[in-house]
Write a structure and sequence with these properties.
Blueprint (H helix, E strand, L loop, with lengths): L5 H20 L1 H4 L5 H19 L8 H7 L8 H13 L3 E3 L10 E3 L1 H22 L3 H7 L2 H15 L2 H4 L3 H7 L4 H9 L13 E5 L2 H8 L3 H13 L3 E5 L3 E6 L1 H32 L3
Antiparallel strand pairs: 1-2, 3-5, 4-5
Helix pairs in contact: 1-6, 1-11, 3-8, 8-14, 10-11, 12-13
């Protein structure tokens, strides 16, 4: 999986389109993974849910288990984690789970949220299948248990890997902001179909801040500030003054993004292999 391989860039373009399509279907939900901080916390919550679903001996999803998840690194404050958990519950993404112990209040993903996570993982498995001719998507469809097994393996690998959790500066400029990941996806999905070697700026055509702000319910000023910072860093270039005309993206941003994304795809590929082994051990005979 070479990050400069045109096939991988094509896969990333298609993946960005699918992620944006998911946003259009469920914008409120997707916003919980549309910045790096939210991605890390939300995916940790989902991983705890699936670990419990895969193995009832594991601790249930509670504020305490979420705090414990990040205890070694202390990346986020307890208040940040509990507030995120409470907000996801308020929007119906998390629902109460029955418990015999009335002292704890375990939660679980709603069926709707679980379906969306399955779509997210399936889109990444489909991308891997395109790269190597595998049949991971078919295996997931044949045995839904793989979702609960595979997702936590990938997330635990990614959340504590600086190569993923601490993106390159060019990528971080986007993903540290509210809905910044969606803005980055808007750029990537506009890569020309025939994009080859990335050794010079790639023209994406015209793209205005108003298009992005309308689609993602963001203020136009927020998008313009991100664009201005990216232009000042030489990451985005416009053919006319005042961010007008055709927009081009720099090779450094594209290659940094591809390198960063390759970390995620490798983790998911490894999680798939591990889940195969784990499920095989539970098969009779």
């Amino acid at each position: 999986m070479e990050n400069h391989d045109p096939r991988f860039l094509a896969v990333l373009r298609d993946a960005a389109e699918q992620l944006l399509a998911m946003h259009d279907t469920a914008p409120r939900v997707v916003r919980y993974v549309a910045s790096m901080q939210k991605w890390l916390i939300t995916q940790a919550i989902i991983a705890l849910h699936f670990e419990r679903k895969h193995d009832e001996a594991r601790a249930p999803l509670t504020a305490g288990s979420l705090i414990e998840f990040f205890a070694q690194e202390q990346r986020f404050s307890k208040n940040t984690l509990t507030a995120h958990l409470a907000e996801m519950r308020a929007y119906g993404l998390l629902v109460p789970q029955d418990s015999r112990d009335k002292r704890i209040k375990p939660l679980q993903l709603s069926p709707y949220a679980e379906t969306l996570v399955g779509q997210w993982l399936e889109s990444h498995l489909a991308a891997l299948d395109r790269l190597d001719g595998g049949r991971r998507v078919s295996e997931l469809a044949e045995d839904p248990r793989r979702l609960a097994c595979m997702h936590p393996l990938a997330v635990r690998a990614l959340v504590f890997d600086p190569a993923w959790a601490e993106p390159p500066a060019s990528v971080d400029l986007f993903v540290r902001t509210e809905s910044g990941s969606n803005i980055l996806h808007e750029l990537i999905c506009r890569l020309p179909m025939d994009t080859g070697r990335v050794d010079q700026p790639i023209c994406l055509g015209p793209l205005h801040a108003s298009e992005i702000s309308t689609r993602h319910t963001l203020s136009r000023g927020h998008v313009q500030r991100i664009f201005s910072r990216a232009r000042a860093e030489g990451l985005l270039l416009w053919s006319l003054p005042a961010n007008q005309g055709d927009l081009s993206v720099s090779p450094s941003l594209l290659l940094d993004y591809a390198r960063w994304q390759s970390v995620k795809f490798r983790a998911i590929a490894q999680a798939h292999r591990q889940s195969q082994q784990m499920i095989a051990r539970t098969e009779p005979g």
